């Protein structure tokens, strides 16, 4: 395997041939309507090519041995902690991200695979692939397979070609996007009136389960989940073939909707961490949205955020705007819309508005928030295509129209991709051999994989790099450092966790060159007097290397 990767590193032309070959196949299949007699086989081929395209472009990201974003390291450290204790908020606290984000990253451990940056990025791409497939079927059940194929071309182009760190590493948005899109697809199935009674019950159950789980994946996604809940409710109320059928669907949906919240309520009741859950996940979140305590927090989100933030997103957005305007013009000429079309257009606009609110409300220039908008924009594009398709010009020049549509997105996005150097491909040879940081190597002199350690500062990457388990519930300590109404609460909890887990090593990662927390005088562990006293009593300084201080527990 290493030899094969080294070969790709030496001959990157083969990477581009395979990746762009898969993409070209996808675009050809999207532009060419599938024959009716072979529609199922053609559709399966098309969906397989989508997965091949995503993985063909993104696999060099998998082998990068260091973090590509701070959230990625924090969530991976939480997933490592889950292997010791499953209880959320008692054992691990993902901050503004929900516990489900950590559980899904811990799944590789069930089959004996390591939890590291490679595994979490693969999980993230699988979630986005599931999202694309759910989007495809949602559009297909409303507008047909031709529009569905075309509508997913822009998001596949974006997710395949981008090299922006914010879009290629695992972020806390991935799971909530997947859950809400699957629920949206189930709602489209219900409102289309298709399927057997058992299939419709399964769709209602799936929609409820995903919507109940979404707020526990990321609280920021709650407005989006609520919008999809409204859409699903509209589908349920209008889709029953009889009063009894409708009642069964509503009961299945409601029961599934309560399942995940009920499970978490039971968990926090049994473990006695109600106050921890409410404070950390709910109360702090409102302070965070109000422009909270983290450095570089408060900012005004304006149009520049959408058009200048990442490499390929502006091209994706501009193409969507053009198609949306053409769809609006088509709507002006066609006022007699079917019930299904009206439902889809209202649902798309509602979803888009909820998503814009979720992106805007935290007032932070975090580019990975833009991932939330990919599905709603694709839904609006699908709605516009559905309106354009009803015109006579579409029927006369179907293939030409499809090619023009694909070119609108593909030409500028491929041009941007080829004009910038792909650092992930350029550094394949370096990443084949795991690059170790000086700090991680120093920590490993005192702790082996599986040992419990504690890190003060914002450096959860060391947990992942050394495969150690964090002693406290917090992968990083910004809430213990920055002034905020709950700082004393988080500090007391941090100290209690240290006393309970008694880590073999304590690391103070605050210092020059660190992420955000760089001032030892005001942000080091000495800024918390009770912690400083505890460390002085129970630990001894072993090394001050690479900007981190490593303390080892004294012999007991």
Written overview of the protein:
With 556 residues, this protein is mostly helical. It is 66% helix and 4% strand. The chain has 28 helices and five strands. Helix 10 (173-192) runs parallel beside helix 12 (222-239) and helix 17 (339-360) runs antiparallel to helix 18 (374-389). It is globular, with a radius of gyration of 25 Å. It starts with a helix and ends with a strand.
Q: What average pLDDT do the residues reach?
A: 87
Q: Sketch the major β-sheet.
A: 5 strands, mixed
Residue runs with pLDDT of under 50 for 5 or more positions: none
Q: Tell me the total number of β-strands.
A: 5
Structural class: mainly alpha
- Tell me what portion of residues adopts beta-strand conformation: under 5%
Percentage of residues in helical conformation: 55-70%
Task: Please give the order of strands in the largest beta sheet.
Answer: 2-1-3-5-4
What attributes characterize this protein structure?
556 residues; mainly alpha; 2 domains; 5-stranded mixed sheet; 5 strands; 66% helix; globular
Summary of the model, kept short:
The protein has 556 residues and is mainly alpha-helical.
Question: How does the SSE layout of this entry go?
Answer:
Elements: H1 2-10, H2 12-31, H3 39-62, H4 70-82, H5 99-105, H6 117-143, H7 145-151, H8 153-161, H9 165-168, H10 173-192, H11 197-213, H12 222-239, H13 243-271, H14 274-289, H15 303-308, H16 313-333, H17 339-360, H18 374-389, H19 392-396, H20 398-419, H21 423-426, H22 428-432, H23 438-443, E1 452-456, H24 461-466, E2 469-470, H25 478-481, H26 487-501, E3 505-508, H27 520-523, H28 529-538, E4 539-545, E5 548-553
Parallel strand pairs: 1-2, 1-3
Antiparallel strand pairs: 3-5, 4-5
Helix pairs in contact: 1-2, 2-3, 3-6, 3-8, 4-5, 6-7, 6-10, 6-18, 7-18, 8-16, 8-20, 10-11, 10-12, 11-12, 11-13, 12-17, 16-18, 16-20, 17-18
């Amino acid at each position: 395997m290493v030899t094969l990767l080294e070969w790709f590193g030496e001959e990157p032309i083969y990477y581009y041939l395979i990746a762009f070959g898969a993409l070209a196949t996808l675009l050809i299949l999207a532009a060419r309507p599938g024959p009716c007699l072979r529609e199922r086989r053609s559709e399966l081929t098309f969906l397989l090519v989508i997965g091949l395209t995503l993985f063909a472009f993104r696999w060099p990201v998998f082998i990068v041995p260091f973090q590509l974003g701070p959230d990625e390291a924090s969530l991976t450290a939480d997933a490592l902690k889950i292997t010791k204790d499953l209880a959320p908020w008692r054992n691990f606290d993902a901050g503004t991200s929900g516990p489900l984000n950590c559980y899904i990253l811990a799944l590789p451990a069930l089959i004996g695979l390591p939890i590291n940056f490679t595994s979490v990025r693969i999980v993230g791409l699988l979630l986005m692939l599931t999202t694309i497939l759910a989007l495809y079927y949602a559009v297909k059940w409303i507008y047909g397979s031709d529009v569905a194929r075309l509508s997913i071309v822009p998001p596949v182009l974006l997710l395949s070609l981008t090299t922006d760190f914010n879009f290629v590493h695992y972020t806390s948005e991935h799971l909530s996007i997947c859950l809400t899109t699957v629920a949206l697809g189930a709602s489209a199935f219900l409102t289309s009136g298709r399927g057997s009674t058992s299939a419709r019950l399964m769709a209602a159950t799936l929609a409820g389960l995903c919507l109940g789980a979404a707020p526990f994946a990321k609280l920021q996604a709650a407005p989006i989940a609520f919008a999809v809940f409204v859409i699903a409710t509209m589908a349920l109320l209008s889709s029953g073939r009889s009063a009894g059928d409708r009642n069964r669907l509503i009961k299945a949906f409601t029961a599934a909707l309560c399942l995940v919240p009920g499970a978490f309520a039971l968990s926090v009741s049994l473990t006695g961490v109600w106050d921890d859950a409410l404070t950390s996940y709910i109360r702090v979140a409102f302070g965070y949205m109000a422009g909270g305590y983290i450095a570089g927090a408060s900012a005004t989100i304006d149009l520049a955020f959408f058009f200048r933030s990442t490499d390929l997103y502006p091209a994706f957005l501009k193409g969507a705007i053009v198609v949306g305007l053409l769809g609006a013009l088509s709507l002006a000429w066609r006022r007699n819309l079917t019930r299904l079309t009206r439902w889809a257009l209202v649902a798309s606009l509602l979803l888009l508005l909820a998503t814009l609110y979720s992106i805007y409300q935290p007032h932070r220039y975090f580019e990975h928030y833009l991932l939330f908008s990919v599905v709603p924009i694709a839904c609006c594009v699908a709605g516009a295509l559905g309106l354009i398709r009803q015109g006579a010009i579409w029927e006369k020049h179907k293939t030409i129209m499809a090619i023009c549509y694909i070119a609108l997105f593909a030409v500028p996005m491929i041009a941007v991709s080829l004009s910038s150097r792909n650092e992930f491909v350029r550094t394949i040879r370096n990443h084949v051999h795991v690059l170790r940081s000086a700090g991680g190597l120093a920590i490993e002199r005192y702790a082996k994989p599986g040992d419990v350690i504690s890190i003060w500062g914002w450096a959860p990457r060391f947990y992942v790099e050394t495969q150690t388990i964090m002693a406290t519930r917090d992968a990083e300590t910004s809430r213990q450092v920055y002034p905020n109404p709950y700082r004393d609460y988080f500090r007391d909890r941090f100290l209690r966790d240290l006393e309970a887990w008694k880590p073999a090593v304590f690391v103070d990662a605050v210092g020059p060159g660190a992420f955000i927390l760089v001032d030892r005088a005001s942000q080091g562990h000495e800024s918390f007097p009770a912690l400083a006293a505890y460390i002085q009593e129970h630990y001894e300084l072993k090394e001050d290397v690479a900007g981190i201080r490593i303390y080892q527990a004294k012999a007991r």
